[in-house]
User: What shape does this take?
Amino acid sequence: MRIFLDTANIDEIREAAKLGVVSGITTNPSLIAKERTTDMKAVIQEIASIIDGPISAEVLSLEPSAMIEEARVVSSWSPNVIVKIPMPESGLQVISSLSREGIRTNLTLCFSLNQALLGTIAGATYVSPFVGRLDDISHDGMQLVSDIVKVFDHFKVSTQVLAASIRHPLHVVIAAKAGAHIATIPYSVLKQMIRHPLTDIGIARFAEDWQNIPKE
Ligand code: E4P
Assistant: This one.
């Protein structure tokens, strides 16, 4: 399973990139707004200068021809851009049309197996089941990830399952066990994944034992 970072914060992306484990970035309008800018192009291009991998950027238009036009512009910002499209009828139509043009898409805000199925048939490069937001309304988000992986494997489709709306390290563990191709995670969760109290205790004990070697 690959790890993407779910953020538009340049400092976090720079820090995480140093670790060598992040192979892509997902953004959304809320994440970009959190950085107090509306210049999505500048943000996406700066991210592309740091991370050599897929970078998801979302279109804001709602009408199909405007979405397609916006998607063409967004995808021209960098060869690594993946255009995030949400699912209403217009979105499905847009994904089909963009896939015929060779523009890669990420079906975002995916909350059901049917939406994922339609996304892959339409030619989406990625589908993003939003795990945390399903959990928030007492649905099992990870069950959806597992179902999509199973069905995509069965039909050997090339669309990748990108587990999104990840809220804590256990989500990452379950996404990996379910066979998700990618988990996109906040920087805080990446840092939580690194730490284990027994590792800290072990390092301290090794150092202490080394110091306590009787001097000859
Ligand atoms: C994924 O592509 C989305 O940006 C993200 O995972 C949404 O997460 P949230 O539900 O925590 O906002």
